[in-house]
Sequence to fold (274 residues):
Amino acid sequence: MGVLKRFEQRLEGLVNGTFAKVFKSEVQPVEIAGALQRECDNNATIWNRDRTVVPNDFIVELSAPDYERLSPYSGQLGDELGGMVRDYAKQQRYTFMGSVKVHLEKADELDTGLYRVRSRTLASSASQQPQRAGGAPNNAYGGQGGYPPGAGPAGAPPMLAGPPPGYAPGSGSDAGAMPRAETRRWIEINGNRHQISRPTLVLGRSTEADVRVDDPGVSRRHCEIRVGDPASIQDLGSTNGIVVDGQHTTRATLRDGSRIVVGSTTIIYRQAEG
Fold:
């Protein structure tokens, strides 16, 4: 069972169902959980071959209406989100410099349904006051961490956007390693799986679309998924637009588990190696 699915199941049992009513807002807890996973991935610091450090102090900024709705439960929700981050880190073999904390904050400039994630790495002995950092309203796609690019906590090595300097496939300790498995990609719509076996995949209401979405709120050629590293989705001039992980957008990067909403239909993007 995936980390996000376990998180959803734990959340369902909290406060005798109170959360189910609270989370009828546009911001869903599983979307925030997915954004925290991306924040870890985007701000991972490679120390050595056996250790990759990720942020452990997170701030989730919410619009005023969403914050007012969720703030009475911020303690419990923060604990559950923190537990999800720890589970995800264990799965990815990430490590932390200190205990994991997740805080909710109000951001008056955000519209209802939008949120922003910020993070930083705090050692156990460091102050627990989160560091503020700017960034466009998103779900951590741009890696809006608490440090400037290339910077990190005092005494920590610089963050690496790719392999360590001097690394070349097939050299050093990686010589003789098996080639990386091919990435499989697919989408899930209403329980049905559609494989992505071509460079682009058009979704729409037309029978000429690669994947037909029978929804009156979907345009004939609504959007297009483009295979790449990373994969992305592009709106094709649709009437109602697309929402990716809670954010209205015309183009977005996709990762495993990304939630795409077209009309009233939710599409889950999946990818896996092998």
Summary: The first strand starts at residue 45 and ends at 48. DSSP finds five helices and 17 strands in the chain. Confidence is low (pLDDT under 50) at residues 15-21, 126-179.
